[in-house]
Specification:
Blueprint lengths: L2 E10 L1 E10 L5 E5 L5 E7 L5 E4 L11 E5 L5 E7 L6 E8 L6 E7 L1
Antiparallel strand pairs: 1-2, 2-7, 3-6, 4-5, 4-8, 8-9
Length: 110
């Protein structure tokens, strides 16, 4: 089964990222997470490639297994907020933390 991911960034003072994951198949798929961290976002300077912010850095997460069912009409959405970012042009990459190679990128300007 295949999973499709999109990442949107909305800059309005803070930057809000929305990662949406769906399955490309008509049959729902069960995803298993090994902690409370379902996904992460890394923001890099668009010119230098240097990491300037990562949502999961410095956070603690529960160590509990959970499952979520994802279907073509039942997306898994994870929302992250980067508070008060400096002005600039950035590239963000969000990665699903379910033991699958699922990620999405977007560029944005603050």
């Amino acid at each position: 089964m295949s999973l499709d991911a999109t990442l949107e960034a909305t800059a309005d003072g803070d930057v809000t990222f929305t990662l949406s994951v769906t399955t490309g198949d008509p049959i729902p798929e069960e995803l298993t997470f090994r902690s409370g961290k379902r996904a992460d976002v890394v923001v890099r300077d668009a010119e230098t490639g240097e990491t300037v912010w990562q949502w999961g850095r410095g956070r603690m997460f529960t160590q509990a297994i959970s499952t979520v069912e994802v279907g073509p009409d039942e997306p898994l959405e994870e929302v992250f907020t980067w508070p008060d970012p400096p002005a600039g042009r950035y590239t963000a990459e969000a990665t699903l933390e379910a033991g699958r190679n699922v990620s999405a990128t977007t560029t944005f300007t603050v």
